[in-house]
Amino acid sequence: MTFKSALQDLRETTLVAVSGVLARLAYLASLRRRDGGYSHWGLSLVHGEESSDRALKAAQTEVLSKVLRTPIPELVEDLRESSQQNNATAEGYIEGMRQQFSELLPSPEDTAAAAHLNSVLIALSTLEKNRKRATRSTS
Questions:
Q1: What is the pTM of this model?
Q2: Quick one: pLDDT at residue 136?
């Protein structure tokens, strides 16, 4: 019997079921508690609270890094996929992410990542709004 680390378990069991890098980031943000820790019942049960917290923070850091490295055109497609999966409009989905901005960041002290993520979310929001207007005006 092989044992998985909490991070490996999280990657191979939970995150693999969430389609889209933006959806993964939003999902991990939804697990944040007010004190900055995380709440994932199953992972905590199997691996313990401390191990679970470390794994969730590491995963959120990895996913955020991936979002920040992904070209905007790919994120636009990811946004559409993530929003459809969550039965939301792309515009509503990205606005929801902007409203939970502080939870999207694994470390609030990382001002560079915060500034970069903010610019990415603004770009996606602007592109989606402009796409909507352009589509409406041509029809």
A1: 0.89
A2: 59
